[in-house]
Amino acid sequence: xxxxxxxxDISRIAEILVFVKRMNYRSIFQNDAVSFGEIQVLPVAEEYxxxxxxxxxxxxxxxxxxxGLIRIVDKEVVELYVDHFFQGQVIGAELIEFAKKEFDVNxxxxxxxxxxAIRFYETHGFKVTxxxxxxxxxxxxKVMMELCKxxx
Length: 152
Known about the structure:
This protein is of the alpha+beta class and 152 residues long. Helices cover 40% and strands 30% of the residues. It contains six helices and seven strands, in the order βααααβββαβαββ. It has helices at residues 10-29, 32-38, 41-48, 51-54, 91-103, 115-123, and strands spanning 2-4, 57-62, 65-73, 76-82, 107-111, 126-134, 141-147. A seven-stranded mixed beta sheet has the order 1-2-3-4-5-7-6, with helices on both faces. Helix 1 crosses helix 3. The longest helix has 20 residues, at 10-29. The model has no long low-confidence stretch (mean pLDDT 90).
């Protein structure tokens, strides 16, 4: 079931964000000081307890366990993460399709070197554009992906 996130979900959201970011991005950024020093559950939980952030998060819950989340601002997917232990169970697919249907999302940013994410989004109708930018504070690029018309 996909539902709006609440304050009781904050610690689980932070846990998913920290561990999935470590798994997905450590090999790209190769910066253990960030992966294990700056990215910590408690500070992330504090950041995401901000009502302006929490207001835009939806969670995928099954068997009373939050297994994934999506953050949507306007018509953009800002974040989509599925707990490593539950990947491959169509949770990400359900979250992105929910965002397309309920919020008419049409764009997102993905790290250029995150081939798995780009492939996933392409499967769901998004295409890489020529628009790219440096990920803040790094030398890595992110690419804008847009939903192709008629791919809904």
